[in-house]
């Protein structure tokens, strides 16, 4: 697009700005103006006495522009400062009237608009996406009965049981307060000091050390409402419910070395991934799952439903998938939408209600309170991204930045001058009538004895992991505690892990200079009799539990698609263009996004003599940005790449990170020149022409590349190939 000349507005000089939809405007339309609507003739030079100054105070345009700029920042979120958002919609599969009267869960034909914001928790707004951390998964449903916010995470449990501990948790995990180090990392003394003194955080710590804390993509992680909520139907019958989001692409993760490198190579990795996926039409999809529990089963489990450090195993209460969330539109204005969106657990609609979970109860205070500071006053609900689609009529008024102009004299209820309006709605009309839960008790500061078993579910999580996942948890534990200077803290944490599992604790201890702990008898880990009594209210025999839960492992996740996977093709001048194009076409037919990476941007000449477009130069990219790599043949191309350490490093790293690798023709020679080891490669002397070993697919026979392409696709579907004993030995 050519740069428009001064005095040549696109709309031919029309002052009227065509709104795309209410509150959206195109700043490039019409003439440049001040905020007061005066037209501007020059925005490149301040008003001066003579061309060399001084500058004049009366330059209103200058002062307005600079003043506005000076005030562009608002406080970042105390937690979850780093995030990215997208628009979409939610559709229920079938009417849910049996369980809830919520209108948006009744009609499969209704598409409820949503805005979702994904986030990390600990880092500041400019921090890297791939830090080891919980991911926020917050959804605002703009329902016909008002806004419902499901403010969840990608981990189903939380660090603490009572919201009064949240400031302590956040202070401990954020950069240490005297030195503001480290950024976006829990690997430091104050966090593990706190954690080692908070046995209730043990279950969550295991999740944090697992690969769940380094997702491959926001599109490939689960979401959880965490707390137990209530669903209430039109007859007033209530049941407990846990909310889940299940990604249709499956649950996939990075490896830790990759995550750390990405923090430098592409700190926007997750943000970019989401933006590009939506931009390309690969709309992220998640099914909404419900675990519904009858009120009569409130005390049927070996944990308390009100305890947010516990999950309800899917083997005990299956997740029913009741609808689908699809993200279809990127933001137009990051600040106005993603930065200003204000979620609040208190935003519920009729038919959905709270439980007495003490973490949730405190959240219900905290969110609205934080918005008052962040967004500058009580009228943040009028900011377009927060405004409900349902009509708003009430007597709230005034305050900073009031947008509504309320007509008439009547600003109170009851009134007669306004005809007694606005009227009160009934439950049948959709009024948010709270569930009439019966409560009684003694006022006290206390924790229920039923919250006191902090280890059984941590052990359940550990026991449910595959060997590879366990290994990753151990390594993450060694990394995190390895950054802790205090031996006492490390020792205390190992003692805590020992109550989860002896192998876990001993293996982490080995890596962090702590003596292996003694093996504990089972009795030390069992819930206290008081705890058991508190849960079961005298019905201990009926308590339900499991020793293993497959749903807690990522090992058997969805692995049947290469849709939206990023594949790098390494090439230099002289590449076998035919091979490259055949394999690329097969990958793209499967929905993968393929990029040709060469020593330089522009074009390269193929072995056949035609020109091939390069998508990225080696200098600007890295294997950590891709899910898989393919090296086509072409003797000159391979010879050039063999001379370039960057290409060898690319392959080494992809191998080390357990990624699918394919090579055809002379491309196999580049693998032979790399440091990868422990896999068989198609070698003209000793191996069959087509070979797949531990996710590395090679062929010497390029006459028919279809079997090769299909084998490579199968390898990419698997996402990562963990059975590579040689991976650790590769220098990368
Ligand atoms: Fe929180 C933000 C999720 C406990 C107080 N929280 C925030 C966000 C998510 C969560 C996803 C970001 C929303 C966005 O994208 O704007 N928080 C959780 C979950 C929790 C949890 C799943 C436990 C189950 N949070 C929690 C507690 C408190 C808070 C116990 C306070 C006592 N959370 C906040 C906050 C934030 C927030 C300080 C920061 C900015 C904001 O709310 O809007 O109020």
Can you give me a brief rundown of this structure?
The chain has 732 residues and is of the alpha+beta class. It is built from 19 helices and 19 strands. The protein has helices spanning 60-70, 166-173, 189-196, 202-209, 256-265, 269-279, 334-339, 358-374, 456-464, 467-482, 487-498, 502-511, 522-525, 529-536, 577-589, 635-642, 645-656, 667-673, 706-717; strands at residues 83-92, 112-120, 135-143, 146-153, 223-224, 229-232, 238-247, 285-294, 320-330, 352-353, 566-570, 593-598, 602-605, 611-614, 616-617, 628-631, 661-664, 690-693, 696-699.
Describe the structure.
The chain is an alpha+beta fold. The protein folds into four domains: 4-70, Cytochrome C Oxidase, Chain J (Irregular); 83-196 and 215-382, Catalase core domain (Catalase HpII,  Chain A, domain 1, Beta Barrel); 449-552, Hemocyanin, N-terminal domain (Up-down Bundle); 566-729, 3-Layer(aba) Sandwich (Rossmann fold), CATH 3.40.50.880. The protein is 26% helix and 15% strand. The chain contains 19 helices and 19 strands. The strands form three sheets. Strands 1, 2, 3, 4, 5, 6, 7, 8, 9 and 10 form a ten-stranded antiparallel β-sheet that branches. It has a seven-stranded mixed β-sheet with strand order 15-12-11-16-17-19-18, with helices on both faces. It is globular and about 95 Å long. The two termini are 42 Å apart. Residues 77-80, 83, 117, 119, 136, 138, 151-153, 158, 163, 166, 226, 308, 341-343, 359, 362-363, 366-367, 370 line the site of CIS-heme D hydroxychlorin gamma-spirolactone.
């Amino acid at each position: 697009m050519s740069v428009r000349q001064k005095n040549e507005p696109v709309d031919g000089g029309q002052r009227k700005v065509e709104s795309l939809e209410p509150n959206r405007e195109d700043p490039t339309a019409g003439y440049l103006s001040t905020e007061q609507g005066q037209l501007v003739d020059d925005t490149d030079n301040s008003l001066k006495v003579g061309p060399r100054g001084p500058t004049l105070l009366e330059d209103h345009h200058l002062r307005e522009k600079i003043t506005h700029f000076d005030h562009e920042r608002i406080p970042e979120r105390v937690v979850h400062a780093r995030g990215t958002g997208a628009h979409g919609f939610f559709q229920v599969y079938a009417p849910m009237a049996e369980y809830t009267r919520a209108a948006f869960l009744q009609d499969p034909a209704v598409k409820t608009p949503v805005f979702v914001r994904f986030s990390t928790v600990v880092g500041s707004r400019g921090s890297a996406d791939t830090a080891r951390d919980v991911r926020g998964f917050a959804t605002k449903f703009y329902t016909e009965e008002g806004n419902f916010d499901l403010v969840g995470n990608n981990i189903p449990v939380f660090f603490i049981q009572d919201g009064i501990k949240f400031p302590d948790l956040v202070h401990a995990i954020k950069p240490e307060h005297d030195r503001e180090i480290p950024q976006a990392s829990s690997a430091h003394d104050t966090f593990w000091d706190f954690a080692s003194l908070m046995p209730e955080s043990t279950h969550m710590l295991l999740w944090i050390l697992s690969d769940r804390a380094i997702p491959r993509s926001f599109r490939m992680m689960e979401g959880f409402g965490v707390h137990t909520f209530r669903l209430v139907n039109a007859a007033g019958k209530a049941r407990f419910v846990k909310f889940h989001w299940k990604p249709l692409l499956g649950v996939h993760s990075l490896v830790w070395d990759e995550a750390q490198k990405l923090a430098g190579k592409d700190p926007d990795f997750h943000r970019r991934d989401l933006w590009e996926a939506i931009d390309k039409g690969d709309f992220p999809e998640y099914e909404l799952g419900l675990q519904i529990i009858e009120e009569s089963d409130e005390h049927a489990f070996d944990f308390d439903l009100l305890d947010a450090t516990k999950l309800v195993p899917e083997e005990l209460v299956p997740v029913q998938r009741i609808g689908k969330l699809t993200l279809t539109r990127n933001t137009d204005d990051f600040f106005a939408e993603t930065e200003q969106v204000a979620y609040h657990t208190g935003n519920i609609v009729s038919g959905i209600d709270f439980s007495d979970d003490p973490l949730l109860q405190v959240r219900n205070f905290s969110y609205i309170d934080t918005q008052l500071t962040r967004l500058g006053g009580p009228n943040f609900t009028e900011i377009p991204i927060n405004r409900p689609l349902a009509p708003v009529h009430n007597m709230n008024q005034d305050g900073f930045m009031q947008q509504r102009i309320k007509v008439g004299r009547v600003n109170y209820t009851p009134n007669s001058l306004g005809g007694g309006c606005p009227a009160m709605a009934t439950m049948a009309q959709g009024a948010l009538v709270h569930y009439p839960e019966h409560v009684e008790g003694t006022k006290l500061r206390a924790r229920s004895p039923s919250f006191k078993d902090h280890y059984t579910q941590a052990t359940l999580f550990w026991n449910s992991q595959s060997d590879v996942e366990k290994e990753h948890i151990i390594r993450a534990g060694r990394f995190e505690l390895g950054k802790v200077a205090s031996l006492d803290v490390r020792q205390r944490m190992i003692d805590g892990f020992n109550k989860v599992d002896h192998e876990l604790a001993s293996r982490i201890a080995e890596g962090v200079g702590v003596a292996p702990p003694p093996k504990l008898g089972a009795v030390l880990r069992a819930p206290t009799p008081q705890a058991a009594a508190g849960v079961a209210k005298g019905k201990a025999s009926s308590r339900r539990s499991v020793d293993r839960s497959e749903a807690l492992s990522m090992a058997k996740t969805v692995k049947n698609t290469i849709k939206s996977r990023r594949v790098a093709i390494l090439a230099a001048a002289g590449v076998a263009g035919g091979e490259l194009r055949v394999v690329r076409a097969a990958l793209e037919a499967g929905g993968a996004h393929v990029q040709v990476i060469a020593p330089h941007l522009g074009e390269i000449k193929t072995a056949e003599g035609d020109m091939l477009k390069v998508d990225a130069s080696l200098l600007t990219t890295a294997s950590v940005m891709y899910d898989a790599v393919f090296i086509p043949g072409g003797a000159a191309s391979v010879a050039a790449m063999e001379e370039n350490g960057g290409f060898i490093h690319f392959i080494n790293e992809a191998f080390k990170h357990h990624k699918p690798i394919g090579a055809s023709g002379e491309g196999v020679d580049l693998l032979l020149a790399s440091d990868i080891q422990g896999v068989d490669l198609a070698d003209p002397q000793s191996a069959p022409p087509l070979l797949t070993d531990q996710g590395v697919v090679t062929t010497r026979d390029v006459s028919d590349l279809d079997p090769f392409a299909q084998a490579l696709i199968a390898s990419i579907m698997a996402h990562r190939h963990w059975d590579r004993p040689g991976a650790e030995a590769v220098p990368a």
